[in-house]
Design brief:
Layout (H helix, E strand, L loop, with lengths): L2 E3 L5 E3 L3 E2 L5 H14 L3 E3 L7 H11 L7 E6 L6 H15 L6 E4 L6 H13 L6 E4 L3 H10 L6 E5 L7 H10 L2 E5 L13 H10 L3 H11 L3 E2 L6 H8 L8 H8 L14 H26 L1
Parallel strand pairs: 3-4, 4-5, 5-6, 6-7, 7-8, 8-9, 9-10
Antiparallel strand pairs: 1-2
C-alpha cells in the first residue's frame, strides 16, 4: 500500500474503500469484505446513513483500530459551531470509536466557518487526527486556507479521467492540501469502462480499465476511495501496485479531460438553491418524525 503524508504529518493510505450509496443492509458485509481483502482506509459520511454499520463491521473485523484510517464527513444541515461539534461526537458514537483519523466538511455551503471552528477544536483535543473539506472549489478553499486558524489537510472532490481538475490540483498543491477523489471512476458515466483509450492501455499491461484509472490517480498523487459491493472487484481494485503507466500513457489519459463535471457544479446558483431546499426538507422530515415518535 502507498501512503500519503498530510500537511500535519499524519500518514493516509492512498487507496481506500468508500461506502457512498452502499445500503445499510449491505454495508456491514461490504466493509468486512474490504477489510478482509486488505483495505485499511474506510470512508463514510453522516449523509450516507451507514456510519453505524461501518462501526459494527470494524468492531467485528478484529483489525486493530490503530491500523484503520477512518473518515467521516459533517453534513451541511449540521453546520455552525455547536451543531457541527455535537454531530461529530454523535458520529463517533455510531462508529464505535473514540477518535477519527479524518473528518471533512461535506459541502461548501451555509455556516462552514462555524463548523470548521468545531473541527479545529476537536482536532486540537485529539478527537480527530486530521481535518479537511469536500467539494470546495479553489476560491473557497483558498479562503479557508487564508483565514482559518488551521489549514485543511484534505479536499475530497470529483476527479476522474474525464474531469481531471488540473486547476484545483494546482491550488491544493500551493497550499499543501491533499487532493482526494470521490467517484474516481466517474461512476462509469460516459462509457468510462469501455473507453477505447483506457481499454487499449489496460490491454498493454494485462489490466482492466478500472485498474488503469486507479493507477493513473495514484501516479498523479491523488488519494482514491473506489466503491464496490463485490468482493472480487474490491480485490481487483487493490491490484494496482504491480505496474506503472508510462509517460505516454499518462499523456494519452490527460487528453481525455473534458473539464466538465459528470454530476453537478457546486458553483451553480441553481445547485446551491437545490441544496438549500434539500436541507430544509430534511429538517422538516426530522421534526415530523420526532413529533410522531413522541405522540
Amino acid at each position: 500500500m502507498n501512503y500519503i503524508t498530510l500537511n500535519n504529518g499524519v500518514k493516509m493510505p492512498q487507496l481506500g474503500y468508500g461506502v457512498y450509496q452502499v445500503s445499510q443492509e449491505e454495508c456491514e458485509r461490504c466493509v468486512l469484505d474490504a477489510l478482509q481483502v486488505g483495505y485499511r482506509s474506510i470512508d463514510t459520511a453522516q449523509a450516507y446513513f451507514n456510519e453505524e454499520q461501518v462501526g459494527t463491521a470494524i468492531e467485528k473485523s478484529r483489525v486493530d483500530r490503530k491500523d484503520i484510517f477512518l473518515t467521516t464527513k459533517v453534513w451541511v444541515e449540521h453546520y455552525g459551531y455547536k451543531e457541527a461539534k455535537a454531530s461529530v461526537l454523535e458520529s463517533l458514537r455510531k462508529l464505535r470509536t473514540d477518535y477519527l483519523d479524518l473528518c471533512l466538511l461535506h459541502q461548501p455551503f451555509a455556516d462552514y466557518y462555524g463548523a470548521w471552528h468545531a473541527l479545529e477544536e476537536l482536532y486540537e483535543v485529539g478527537k480527530i487526527r486530521a481535518i479537511g473539506v469536500s467539494n470546495f472549489y479553489p476560491d473557497r478553499l483558498v479562503d479557508l486556507c487564508s483565514f482559518a486558524r488551521i489549514k485543511p489537510m484534505v479536499n475530497q472532490i470529483e476527479v476522474h479521467p474525464l474531469h481531471q481538475q488540473g486547476k484545483a490540483k494546482e491550488w491544493m498543491e500551493k497550499y499543501g492540501v491533499q487532493m482526494e477523489a470521490w467517484a474516481p471512476f466517474g461512476e462509469g458515466r460516459s462509457q468510462m469502462f469501455t473507453n477505447p483509450v483506457l481499454a487499449e492501455i489496460g490491454a498493454k499491461y494485462g489490466k482492466t480499465v478500472a485498474q488503469v484509472i486507479l493507477r493513473w490517480h495514484l501516479q498523479r498523487g491523488v488519494v482514491v476511495i473506489p466503491k464496490s459491493t463485490h468482493r472480487e472487484r474490491m480485490q481487483e481494485n487493490l491490484e494496482v501496485f504491480d505496474f506503472t503507466l508510462s509517460s505516454e500513457d499518462m499523456e494519452r489519459i490527460a487528453a481525455l479531460d473534458t473539464k466538465t463535471s459528470a454530476f453537478f457544479a457546486h458553483d451553480d446558483p441553481a445547485m446551491v438553491e437545490w441544496f438549500a431546499q434539500m436541507v430544509e426538507q430534511r429538517k422538516t422530515n426530522h421534526v415530523a418524525a420526532k413529533e410522531k415518535k413522541n405522540w
